[in-house]
């Protein structure tokens, strides 16, 4: 499998131990334990600690990517975790989609790779497709996204079956930020964006954003293209007056803190503390999320409307 | 159970290199020999304290931000509570095991590096306990990063008063050594913002202290370089958050810039002030305000008195200077490249909008780590009275010129509080300072590899200036502790050493940082 992301970034050896990654790391917020942070992993590797000894730390990472824009040494911290996971045995095998259905043809079309959570939010899915004038791909690559996350090898046949229909697409709107990041490597000539960014550009939706909204940016796509998007969202925030899940460094605070085992479904999710921290002290009346996967986490801890961005269209 | 004290009564643990007439040779301390470690570890675990001994845990703390001092603890304890720290210190006293306390690890002289023994990682205690909106104070655990504290305070529209312009400084670390912000000329150092503390003494007692309760311990805890206690919690003053209005003035003379800085401070003409330079060629006096009213008053009364220029004015004056000195063109090119790097960073639109800078510490700290940070850093400094400061800066600058092609100076004033004089004894605040103290950091750019000897010689030469003029230092511990006696005198050091021996019978707490 090719390495994830363009590796113009430096490796763990460049870590100077500044600890800036701790400030934005949801795992550090939860554990207050340096071992479970990019800093801790880089320093351990610098001291020759075997990867197997870092298993718990490597699996604890949520891959939100918040540490990357914080890192002054521009270390490929997400790539580092993925690389380490590939060297470990995944805690549970990822079930790959082995069905051989009819091959789709997306030539010249905009294609939406909806996450499982968005697929389950039927109204939001339909409106997203309509607003973005795109076709919803039957094969959303969810198994590939999970395999990437777990470090599980992806068979060439499965990868080709997923990518072949996308080769001639005009634009891909990938709901999973990690998959989008990989698709940029696999399909460098095709424009790839996230549903959140694409939807937030729709004037029909923007005019419904209110100053008492908390707009929750999907962190993976945001952090993967931070330098460009931080200005985009800053403008959006000023134009609409809504609050955003940005910290004082303008890095996105994830609404959830799902580690690998939780993403694989072998451990119960425990997002309440992270979600409460995001909401702490904010005077808001509604929560608008880019990622449908955040809806349940908010509804568990707060009694106010939580809507997907696309759902604003019917107002 | 046998215990072998590693401290010999009667022996002065202040390094021999500090003694007069003996050649100075600053080095890392010897590694503690590990006597009784296994017994200690068993006793600590029996007391319910988790001790991490893996390479992954210990290796993370092998060095500090300076990257020139390397040590390795035998084990790491992640701070959880005052009670846990108490159990640790009691057990460590019993077994004579050294305990090194670390906050953000932003020391440069190995002060937060454990050369054996236990490394106590205070960032484990980093939760805000409560905000008192009436008293305008916050109670917080002291391993918290100032930035994390700011994140919590801002949700309620508050801010801390002053803290280092570094996102990963911790509250506890700053209370122990000072903590300087660009509003320190008005509000004092971070340590002066503490109203009350919960501390754990070297023998494991948990004590609440303030100016009125256990005042003697409070005086030694603040600016105490971790010698007399571990600060577990603090009550700090807070204020309403305001974005700030920045002004930059550029000088080609250090002396003129320093004089103007002191003019502003003396007359309370600004809310924030400081000097940041590119060598001594481009000297930037930054001035900022919390309110339109303060900014208007400055513009009306003081702006015209400043001798610095705007960006364009400075560039127009610099051009002929370099045109007539073609051998200095590499320097001019360096200035240009540096300007191209730095200026956009200080004006990023997500932090600066409509002339207001949001979150100054974020802006400055991100720039500092990005454009000044590296795997190795040395930042010797001199802290003086008002009167001695220009001389110290100019002499230190000459040393920088001698050792490095590129460097930065950072100068800032610290408003002193008369009622805090006892805190200031044997600290970065020089004994002869009244009204304000001034500090200058001399930071070489590590754009090539320098030997440790080269870096140490540079630091020594800067610190020699301090001895010569009668100054103090912000970073006088660790590898530079040999200067303490020379700068502050035997009487003060011996008095503090006696207090330390009494408080810490086996000298376990932060050994080799000062004593």
Structural features, described:
Chain A is α/β, with parallel strands linked by helices and 315 residues long. Chain A has 18 helices and eight strands. Chain A has helices spanning 20-24, 26-31, 38-46, 55-60, 67-70, 77-87, 116-120, 122-131, 142-150, 156-163, 177-186, 195-200, 203-206, 219-224, 226-240, 260-263, 272-279, 295-301; strands at residues 110-113, 135-136, 171-174, 191-193, 213-216, 243-244, 286-289, 306-308. In chain A, strands 2-1-3-4 form a four-stranded parallel beta sheet. Residues 1-7 of chain A have low confidence and may be disordered. Chain B is an alpha+beta fold and 515 residues long. Chain B contains 17 helices and 17 strands. Chain B has an eight-stranded antiparallel beta sheet, sandwiched between helices. In chain B, helix 1 (37-46) packs antiparallel against helix 3 (82-95). Chains A and B meet through helix 1, helix 3 and helix 15 of A and helix 2, helix 4 and helix 12 of B.
What's the number of helices of chain B?
Answer: 17
Shape of chain B: globular
Largest interface: A-B, 35 and 46 residues
Sheet with most strands of chain A: 4 strands, parallel
- The number of distinct structural domains of chain B comes to 3
Query: Which stretches of chain B are low in confidence, meaning pLDDT under 50 for 5 or more residues running?
Result: 1-23
């Amino acid at each position: 499998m090719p390495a994830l992301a363009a590796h113009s970034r430096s490796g763990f050896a460049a870590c100077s131990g500044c600890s800036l990654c701790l400030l934005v790391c949801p795992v550090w917020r939860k554990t207050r334990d340096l071992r479970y942070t990019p800093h801790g992993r880089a320093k351990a590797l610098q001291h020759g600690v075997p990867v197997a000894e870092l298993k718990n730390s490597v699996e604890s990472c949520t891959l939100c990517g918040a540490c990357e824009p914080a890192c002054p040494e521009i270390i490929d911290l997400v790539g580092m975790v993925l690389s380490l996971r590939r060297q470990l045995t995944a805690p549970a095998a990822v079930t790959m989609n082995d069905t051989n259905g009819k091959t789709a043809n997306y030539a010249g079309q905009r294609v939406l790779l909806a996450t499982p959570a968005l697929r389950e939010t039927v109204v939001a899915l339909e409106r997203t497709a309509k607003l973005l004038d795109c076709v919803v791909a039957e094969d959303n690559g969810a198994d590939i996204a999970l395999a990437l996350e777990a470090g599980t090898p992806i068979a060439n046949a499965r990868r080709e079956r997923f990518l072949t229909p996308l080769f001639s697409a005009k634009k891909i709107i990938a709901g999973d930020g990690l998959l989008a990041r990989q698709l940029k490597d696999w399909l460098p000539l095709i424009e790839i964006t996230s549903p959140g960014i694409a939807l937030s550009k729709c004037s029909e939706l923007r005019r419904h954003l209110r100053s008492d909204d908390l707009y929750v940016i999907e962190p993976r796509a945001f952090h993967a293209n931070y330098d460009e998007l931080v200005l985009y969202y800053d403008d959006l925030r000023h134009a609409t007056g809504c609050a955003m899940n940005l910290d004082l460094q303008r890095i996105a605070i994830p609404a959830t803190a799902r580690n690998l085992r939780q993403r694989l479904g072998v451990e119960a999710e425990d997002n309440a503390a992270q979600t409460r921290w995001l909401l702490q002290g904010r005077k808001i009346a509604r929560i608008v999320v880019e990622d449908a996967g955040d809806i349940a986490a908010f509804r568990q801890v707060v009694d106010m409307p939580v809507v997907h961005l696309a759902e604003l269209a019917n107002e | 159970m046998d215990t072998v004290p590693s401290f010999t009564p009667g022996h002065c643990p202040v390094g021999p290199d500090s003694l007069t007439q003996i050649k100075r040779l600053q080095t890392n301390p010897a590694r503690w020999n590990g006597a009784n470690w296994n017994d200690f570890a068993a006793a600590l675990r029996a007391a319910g304290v988790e001790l991490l001994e893996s390479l992954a845990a210990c290796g993370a703390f092998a060095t500090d931000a300076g990257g020139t001092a390397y040590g390795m603890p035998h084990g790491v304890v992640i701070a959880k509570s005052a009670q846990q720290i108490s159990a640790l210190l009691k057990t460590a006293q019993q077994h004579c095991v050294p305990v090194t306390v670390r906050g953000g690890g932003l020391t440069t002289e190995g002060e937060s590096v454990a050369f054996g023994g236990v490394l106590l990682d205070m960032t484990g205690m980093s939760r805000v306990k409560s905000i008192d909106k009436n008293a305008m104070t916050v109670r917080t655990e002291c391993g918290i990063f100032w930035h994390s504290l700011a994140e919590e305070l801002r949700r309620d529209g508050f801010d801390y008063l002053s803290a280092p312009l570094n996102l990963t400084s911790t509250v506890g670390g700053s209370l122990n050594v000072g903590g300087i912000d660009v509003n320190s000329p008005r509000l004092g150092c971070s340590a002066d913002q503490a109203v009350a503390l919960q501390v754990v003494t070297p023998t494991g007692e948990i004590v609440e202290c303030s100016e009125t309760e256990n005042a003697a311990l409070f005086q030694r805890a603040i600016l105490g370089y971790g010698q007399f206690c571990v600060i577990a919690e603090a009550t700090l003053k807070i204020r309403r958050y305001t974005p700030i209005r920045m002004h930059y003035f550029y000088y080609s003379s250090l002396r003129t810039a320093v004089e103007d800085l002191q003019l502003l401070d003396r007359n309370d003409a600004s809310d924030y002030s400081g000097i940041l330079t590119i060598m001594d060629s481009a000297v930037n006096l930054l001035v900022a305000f919390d309110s339109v009213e303060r900014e208007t008053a400055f513009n009306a009364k003081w702006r015209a008195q400043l001798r610095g220029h705007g960006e364009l004015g400075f560039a127009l004056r610099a051009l002929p200077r370099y045109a007539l000195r073609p051998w200095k063109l590499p320097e001019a090119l360096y200035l240009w490249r540096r300007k191209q790097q730095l200026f956009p960073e200080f004006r990023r639109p997500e932090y600066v909008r409509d002339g207001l800078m949001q979150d100054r510490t974020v802006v400055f700290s991100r720039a500092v780590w990005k454009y000044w940070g590296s795997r190795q850093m040395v930042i010797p400094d001199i802290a003086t009275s008002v009167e001695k400061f220009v001389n110290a800066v100019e002499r230190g600058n000459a040393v920088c010129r001698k050792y490095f092609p590129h460097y930065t100076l950072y100068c800032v004033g610290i408003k002193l509080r008369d009622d805090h004089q006892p805190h200031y004894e044997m600290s970065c605040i020089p004994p002869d300072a009244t009204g304000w103290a001034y500090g200058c950091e001399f930071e070489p750019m590590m754009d090539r590899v320098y030997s440790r000897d080269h870096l140490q010689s540079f630091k020594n030469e800067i610190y020699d200036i301090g001895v010569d003029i009668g100054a103090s230092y912000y970073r006088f511990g660790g590898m530079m502790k040999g200067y303490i006696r020379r700068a502050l005198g035997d009487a003060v050091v011996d008095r503090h050493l006696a207090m330390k021996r009494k408080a810490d019978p086996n000298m376990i707490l932060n050994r080799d940082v000062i004593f």
